[in-house]
Task: structure prediction
Amino acid sequence: MKKIMTILGIAILALTLSFTSANKKIVVIDAGHGGKDYGLNKDGVSEKEIAMNIANKIKTLNTNSDLEIILTRDTDKFLTLEDRVAFINSLNPDAVISLHVNSAPIKTKSGFGFFVCNENEVKIQSNALASKIQKAFQQKYTSNEVAYRNIFLLKNVNSPATLIELGYLSNENDRKLLLSEKGQSEIAAILYKALK
Result:
């Protein structure tokens, strides 16, 4: 039953989008993890919550009628990677951003990470997307260079896509940024500006 509802939801959304302006840019924000999948869970803080909060903030910022931001999830629900890929591909978006956070045994390790898959047919466009966002963050925060990873979602979506690690929960400064309302809003604002 749940599978039928998911398929029905995708069909309705795809039908709705078929009536939108041809010039409208569609961006999917994938809030990583959700539901029973906490992602990184460190000292009572879960990756799924941070990703969802920032995704919702990005959507709220959008006042541009030529840009539609669609979230894979805006509540704490579990979606398989296959469900995420099917949903994203049904929309045929212009760009896909998957949000995550990181951790490392070395507490001094910090900064934003940007990943693309070099086994995807749109790897050149994905790299351009990731580089544009990386440069936007680099103006204010430590941002690592774009790297290649064979990540399921990045490999299987048909649109330019990047996965962003929004900092390290194991680093004191990154943690403060990720857990504060101000920090999450700043991250959302930089991402939104880069996507416009």
